[in-house]
UniProtKB/TrEMBL annotation:
Entry keywords, A to Z: Acyltransferase, Transferase
InterPro entries linked to this entry: GNPNAT1-like
Enzyme Commission number(s) from the entry: 2.3.1.4
Taxonomic source organism: Tagetes erecta (African marigold)
Reaction it catalyzes: D-glucosamine 6-phosphate + acetyl-CoA = N-acetyl-D-glucosamine 6-phosphate + CoA + H(+)
Protein name: Glucosamine 6-phosphate N-acetyltransferase
Length: 102
């Protein structure tokens, strides 16, 4: 897993606003463990519009990170992200290999 560098609040806000401007084609998901008040997993779904499948869409699931202490006994984040794609009429979704944070 790639380590993250520190970014300023201004850099974060600028990036967030750009991603937000893409609308429903870019979905960011954060799964919170409300009992621990901690983020347990994150991931993104990016929509690709196609000409095949009646001009359908395919969802690309990216940047999935799940903290290993939380993963045991809980649904895997890619399944949760995959469920998001069914809510927005995506033909199928492509999932990256699993990664686990420590």
């Amino acid at each position: 897993m790639e380590s993250n560098t520190t970014i300023s609040d201004n850099e974060f806000q600028k990036q967030f606003e750009e991603l937000q401007s893409y609308g429903d084609d870019h979905i960011m998901c954060v799964i919170e463990d409300v009992h621990l008040s901690k983020n347990a997993a994150t991931g993104s779904v990016f929509m690709e519009k196609k000409f095949i499948r009646n001009c359908g869409k395919i969802g690309h699931i990216e940047d999935v990170v799940c903290f290993c202490n939380w993963r045991k006994g809980n649904p895997k984040p890619p399944k949760t992200l995959g469920a998001l794609t069914s809510d927005i009429s995506v033909h199928s979704s492509l999932r990256p290999p699993s990664s686990t944070a420590t």
